[in-house]
Amino acid sequence: MNITSFEQLGLPIDMVNKLSEFEINEPSPVQAEVIPAVLQGSDVLAHSQTGTGKTLAYLLPILQGINPELKTIQKMILAPTQELAMQIVRESERYGLHKGIRVLGLIGGAAMKRQVEKLKLHPQLVVGTPGRIKELVEMRKIKMHTVTTIVVDEVDQVFDLGSGGDVERIIRSAARDRQLVFLSATVSKQTAALVKKEMKQPIEVGIEPEQMTAKGLEHLYFVSQERDKPDTLRRLIRHYNPQKVIVFVNATKDIAEVEAKMNHLGLSTQALYGDADKMARSGVLERFRNGKFKVLVASDLAARGLDIEGLTMVVNYDPPIDSEHYVHRAGRTGRMGRTGIVLSIVTDRQTFIMKKFTQELRTPIGLRTMFGGKVIEPGDEILTSRAPYVSPREEATSYRKGDESRKRLDVDKGTQRKEVTSERNRRSVDSPVIAKRAEPTQTTEVTQPSSATPSQSVEVSRKSNRPSTGASKSERERIRKNKGAPKWLKNKPPRS
Questions:
Q1: For the DEAD-box RNA helicase Q domain, which residue ranges apply (predicted)?
Q2: Where a domain ends, among 206, 226, 250?
């Protein structure tokens, strides 16, 4: 299908002009397939990689199908997480308010009483999480017989979070002739089973690219010891210096630790928890969008479906559990044809995971290493067939400022020590001869101190401290004790 404009898809001119305001002038491949199918009222199963415009693919046609004059809920959108649901609410208001369409977000964690009050304002479109929508349906606060279209976004994630049962109950409470639209980056067995069970002759839209992730993304991984991962993360962020970055951690219990370490290392960081209340999560995301801090640490659940403007970098602090999760993480950046970079930090034993993802996703994930503050690519002189691992501590020691000058100084000192040692050895060999020659002079100079010059006196003091071969045992002992003493003490006569 050779579609070059939204008008050709059947959207009205006012909607096309609204899209132009946000510099969206041509439909993406998934939009070109899904929009006509939804407009004609067919059930649709669409699966495409993240960041290809799936949200607008279903949102634009269902907004077009709403009658603002009717004071009933006509369309419903279900999303797996609170953040994704509120994101869809914002998009719906952006493209629907000029038509007079009222949109209401219904998510868990918010006050039920307040939501019930807002339902009395008769919204035509509701967007929410399956659990909260199901509660309101069972309370008979939402009348499902008026709902003509139900959209389930990120349907695979809905099942992963255990909300599949809630979705099924919501669908069964609606009219039999309702329209179903399922969208996801991948299609699991549970999704396929629900499609077969609930949909009627669905139109399947599968945009299968040469690779599962966006083309504008660069994928790299770095090998690090587990204890060095915080410093490796810090160095990578300092090197690439993105405006915003999301750091993915597998376990929720590790989020606070990573957040604290990044702040300690000088990077402004906050955490996004999946189990935090609505106000706390909304506040963190709002500050992140406004650039109040640089690094957002989150789990897969908390960041699912997020669309952050200006996000150019994603870091897997822990490797994803499978290639599907890798796709969803990578999809937070490089959206709608933009560029981005996805970095993964793995231990030596986890390198096989990156090779596995390369094969499964048909996406090259290159091995790199950091040395001297630079990212070294294969083919450089330092690299062999496999990039050597250099720990941050070793690198810091090797490249600490002034290292080379200290090394040269140590060499000079070593040379000087060798020269001094050689001179001492020479003197020790020659000392008996010198002592014998000095004996007559020493006796003469001592008996006639009045006629000695200052230089001669110093010479006398030096020679008197040398143990001669004929000196008595007590004299040698005195000289040994006086060794290293000041001149005035050496010249002091012994006690009688």
A1: 4-32
A2: 206
